[in-house]
Amino acid sequence: RNRIRYALKTTPKLALNEDPWGRPLAGLAGWMPELDAASAQQLAAIETPDGAAAMPLAQLLSVTLDGLGRPVLLDDLTSYLGNALGGFAREENFDAAAGVAAFNLAEQMDRRAWLTHLWTEILELPLNQRIALLLNLRDHIGDSALRLLPAAGVASIRQIAAAMGMEAPALAALWNQLPLDDLQIGERLSLTRQQIANLRKSARERLARRMGSRR
User: Which of 3, 50, 75, 214 is 20 to 30 A removed from 151 (C-alpha atoms)?
Assistant: First the structure.
């Protein structure tokens, strides 16, 4: 899902919008987001193109959306592509998952504990440093790493918003646009791009010291 989201946001021909209920919509650039979204059944009727597994993801998305002719919910598109490419999004019951080498409950608990520790330290940063860090926080594919916090049960969107001095609805409206670049963050804080970069650098250096000292 993150790979698809990233491709939609960074490929000129593609677009990621929202429907009236705030759900992410995948489409082609220039399509109006208020158009009725295609149903999962309509998407399932689209024939998987030959050689889909070898296509770059952006090309596969373009071909699929061209064939569909209208926006589609990101979740439905993710399920469709998962099935089309061999079920990378399949669900397994607990017993089956426990037998998979990659499934390690202790590792997951350690990761959540680390994230909780990190979040506690972020809350100790000065406000502008928190904002500069969190609004730009990226994962390994360039998507917003801020989504890890609610997903891991570490902090809710309401708590994240409060940490940045925002109302929860304001952050929710911004959620699908994250991460923001330094110019965008600077406009929100009435600061220059360089000042935002300096704030984030200071925040990272402090976090590195604090996280290292508590290992």
Answer: 214
Q: How many residues does the chain have?
A: 215
Consecutive H or E run containing 117: helix 105-122
Structure tokens at 28: 């082609």
- Residue 106 or 50, more confident: 50
pLDDT in tens, 144-175: 888 888 877 888 889 999 999 999 989 988 88
Q: What is the phi-psi region of residue 17: left when phi exceeds 0, alpha when psi lies from -120 to 50, beta otherwise?
A: beta
Prediction pTM value: 0.53
Provide DSSP, 181-214: PHHHHHHHHT--HHHHHHHHHHHHHHHHHHHHHT
Q: How far apart are CA 196 and CA 61, in angstroms?
A: 34
**CA 127 → CA 3, 169, 175, 205, distances in Å?**
31, 19, 19, 16
